[in-house]
Structure formats: structure tokens, C-alpha cells
Amino acid sequence: MARNKTENNETQPGDAETTVKVWDIWVRLFHWGLVMTVATAALTGFFANATWLQLHIIGGLMAGALVLARIVWGLLGSRHARFADFAPSPRAVIDHLRTQSRGGTHRHLGHNPLGALMVFAVLALILSLALSGLGTLGGVLRVGPLAPDLGTDTGFALREAHEILALILAALIALHLGGVAFESWRSRENLTRSMVTGRKPSRSGDVRHAPVRARGLIALTLIALAGGGLAVANATLSGRPVPGLPTATMPELVTEECGACHMAYHPALLPAANWHAIMRTLDDHFGEDASLGTDDVAEITAWLTTHAAETVDTKPARLFARGPEDALAITARPAWQRLHADLPETLFTTQPVGSASNCAACHQDAETGRMSPFAITLPKETQP
Amino acid sequence: MTSPIPSLKAAMAAAALTVLAAPVLAQDTSPDQLLSAYEAEAGASADLARGQALFTGQHTGGKPDTPSCTTCHTMDPRAKGQARTGKVIEPLAPGANPERFTETAKVEKWFGRNCNSVLGRDCTALEKADLIAWLSSL
């Protein structure tokens, strides 16, 4: 079919059924781009473990960027792309519901008032998800543009909000799919195909509007400026020092003495009480004799407790600081067991890991005490 | 060769090599010296077979997770071993790892810990001599 350079409302001749152009190419690209990015973020967020976090963040940020671009297009795009075209007044919503319930058949070429409400809700939710996600990244994982401003208190609260928003979005998407199915049935047209082709069958009784010219160049400029501005802001904000991170370098005495049988665990992975207890009982140290001279014990204890979990503000420190006193080992802390509950037992017991205590076999940044989900690589092959 | 430069270079390279090769830990002894010191302390001479039996045998007096030296150092002390934590242990036999038995304090520290873990007691001077004799023979 030859591409027809018709403007918005002209019908396209030569079709079995005359159609009218409704959705411009940008609206359609935006819609399906959003489907892909939100699906990526949702699948990785709801179902995948922390090793998928990078993809989750890429999906979420791209969805947020698409929404920002859509907002510009909602102000400057073609007729049915504009928010003004479908922004419903409360009155319009009520009227719409009333006519529908009376079995009315009149059709909106663009979004109907209920659909429009859905569009605004989804756009707002995606933006809030991107923001709360960035906040979670900064507060919980202490990286990204907001890391210097947020600690784990705010971070975990934001993560909670992020999860609730995500559930609401999932519910709205379910409603949206239901609405599209219902409306397609009710008005006997395939709305999904319209979002692919951009065209709807032309019907008598369609509400007609004068075409509106899209301000493509201005929109593009605005989007480019916004993108550049955000990139600069991100670089500037992320460049600031982040307080509360574990930075102390381990003295040689500790790397030597506490790194002989296992990696020298970072002191921020356990609270001071645990370090005291461990250092008091070195002659019976998790089933082995790890005894040391009293001077060395005193020096190591002092260093470990000055840099214990209470002294930093990171996710592992916060999580492992909590728990019963008799759970001495990191791997005995309730949070550790929860975080690793989904991993098969054999992964820990077989080569090349050998033991759950061998954090460095899976966590590339284990010595730093950060345990970033971006630094997890599971060994590909295991053998007994 | 007449040019002084190559010999200067060689001297510098030699100096650099010496620095690189210098062990991080102070090497104050050798397997042979330790062996004779333990023998002198015990007043008896070492026996390879006794050393091997002690090292490869299963014991019950120590901590339950470490019934034998081979738990961590494997049946072949020339090979790498593995601690219960998954960490690799470099070979224990001096023939495979020249750094072994070259620092008195380190040897004493680990004999103290490992004999206690495996046997539930300190090793005697004679046992230490037996072990070093067998390990050095590999």
C-alpha cells in the first residue's frame, strides 16, 4: 500500500474500509517503546533477583525518559497526541459513563475520557516510579545522583513506596488491557491494531476536529535540551562525595591474620558486639583454632569495632547489624539467609565456591564491604 | 662489552629483582634448621613414616570438622589445598612452595592452631620434626 501523505482527518482511499489517521508515528513508537521498557522493568523487578538489577534500572529509566518525551509531544504533537485533545473534564467523564451505561455507541477517535484518565495515571505513575527508583538506588545502594543526599532510612522507605507504586501500575495496566478489550468489542474495532497502524475505520458520527499541526522541530529541540540537561545534572550530582560509605583501608595485621583461612571480612559487615564476641573466642573459632597473641587480639579488636556496621550507612551494614546476638557469623544473620534463600544449596557447597563464607567467590567487591548487586557474578560451572 | 651502560642496566635489573624476590615476611629459618632445632628439643631423631602417618591419619581428639591435616592440605601436600571456607591454601610441602617453613613464628603459630584443631592438643617437638621431615622429603 502506497504511503499516503494525508493529514490527520483525511480518509485514505483504496482501503476496503475507509480509515482515518488517529495516532501519529511518535505516539505509536512511544506506546510500544513504553510497553517494552515497562515490561522489562516489571519482569526484572517482580520476578528476577538482584543480579538483574542493571537491566531493571535501564528499563525503568528508559520508560521515564519516554514519558518525559511524551509530555513534550503532548504539548506540541499532532491532534490526537496532544493532552489538550483528550484531557477530560470531570463532567466529560461523568457524561461518558452515563452514555455508556445507557448503551450509547458514540465513539471518540482519540482517547475516550476514561481512557484519557488512564493515560495520565500511567504517565504519572511511571514518572514516580523512575524517581522513587532513583531514590532507592541512592538511598539503599548508595550510588547514582541522589546517593549523597539520601541514607538507608529514606532509601528503604522509598523502596517501599516504589514497590507499592509498581503494584498500582500493574493493576492499572491490567485495567487498561481490559478496557481496550472491552472497548474494542463494544465499538467493533481492533484498537490494538490501530495503535500499530495508527488508523481507525472512519465512521459516520465520528467526532471530527480540525487538524492541528505538530511542532516537530520545537519538540525535538526541547527533548534534546531536556536530555542534555538531565545528563549534565546526573553527572554533577553523581560526582559529589557520598557520606557514610565504608572507606577505611584494612591494616596489614588484619589482612594477614584474618585473611589466612578466609577472605578478610570487612568490619562493616557485622556489628561491634559480634566482633567483640568473635575476637574473645578465637581458640574455638567456628570449629577451628584461630588463636592469636593478646597484643594482636587487642589491636585487631579495636580496629574491627571502630569500623563496625554501626559506623557506616550501607545496605549490608544496616541489614547485618540486625539480628540476635548469638548469630555470630555473617552467614548466620537472618538478613544474610533471607538474601541468599533462593540460591541452590549446592552452589555454596560445590567447587569453585566451597562455602557460603566465601563471599568473594560471587561478590567481586567483597573486600570493600559494599556487596553491590552490580558486582555479583555467579560461577558458571560447579562440580562436587 | 666496553660500554658501561649495559652493566649498569644489569646491575639495576639485578637490584630490582632482589627487591621483587624479597619475601614480604622475614625469612629467619629453613626447613632443615627447623628440623634440627625440633630434633634437638625432642632429643630424638625424626622419622618420615611417623610424620606421614600423623599427617594423613584420621584423628578424633580435635574439633569435629577437622579430623585430619588432609582436611585442608589434601592427601598430597605438594598440591594446593582448600580451607573449609573455600579459600585456596598454597602447597605445604617446601618442595612445591619454597616459602614454607622459613619463618619460625608462622610455623609455630600454625602448628599451635592446627594441631589443636585436629588433635585437640599441641604437637610435641618430635611430632613437629617428623612432620617437617616427611613434608621436606616430598
From TrEMBL, chain A:
GO terms for cellular component: plasma membrane. The chain crosses the membrane at residues 29-47, 53-73, 116-144, 164-185, 217-237. GO terms for molecular function: electron transfer activity; heme binding. The keyword Transcription does not apply. Residues 22-198 form the Cytochrome b561 bacterial/Ni-hydrogenase domain. It is found in: Cell membrane. It comes from the Bacteria. InterPro entries: Cyt_b561_bac/Ni-Hgenase (IPR011577), Di-haem_cyt_TM (IPR016174), Dihaem_cytochrome-c (IPR018588), Hydrogenase_cytochrome (IPR051542). It is a multi-pass membrane protein. Keywords: Cell membrane, Membrane, Transmembrane, Transmembrane helix. PANTHER family: BLL0597 PROTEIN, NI/FE-HYDROGENASE 1 B-TYPE CYTOCHROME SUBUNIT. This is Cytochrome b. It comes from Celeribacter neptunius.
From TrEMBL, chain B:
Residues 56-85 are annotated as: Disordered. Keywords: Heme, Iron, Metal-binding, Signal. The keyword Heme applies. This is Cytochrome c domain-containing protein. PROSITE patterns: CYTC. InterPro entries: Cyt_c-like_dom, Cyt_c-like_dom_sf, DUF1924_SHP. One of its GO terms (molecular function) is metal ion binding. Pfam families: DUF1924. Residues 1-26 form the signal peptide. It comes from the Bacteria. Residues 46-138 form the Cytochrome c domain.
